[in-house]
Fold this protein.
Amino acid sequence: MGLLTDEIRAWIGREVTYHAPEEIGRASIRYFATAVGDDNPLYRNDEYAGEAGYASAIAPPTLICETCQYIDAAADEHGYVGHTWDLPLSNCRLIRVGNDYEFFQPTVPDSVLTVTWRLESIDERSYAKGGTQLFVVSFAQYHDQQRTLLATNRETIVYQPIA
């Protein structure tokens, strides 16, 4: 019996939307830039950002895709606060195998995010160690409080049986 059951297949097309409880903020932008080792003054200095044509400092592009600030929830049993589909699968590990980001507008400190995730597809494929694994593709759209599309993210996660 494979992993892709009718119950799992029924998850395709599901959507969930998260509304951030507050703006991204300068501190988050600064901390993220520091964490990824990017000292670009666009992320810290309003004057420099103004000279580059921005109204204020901006966030590193991937901040909104990698932060979970838009979710106002308790941590799960692993300490994670972020989006997950919680597919009804047991004895599988999750492996993040790819993201395809597209950025449209910069995120600024006063951006308040709304993120909508949609489960696009679930495909079952052969696994080198025998059996099958699931490739789950989700699509996220990130908007600010003016409903401006800031970015999209197509993410692929593999659910792989634990031997």
User: Anything to note?
Assistant: Helices lie at 6-9, 26-35, 46-51, 63-66.
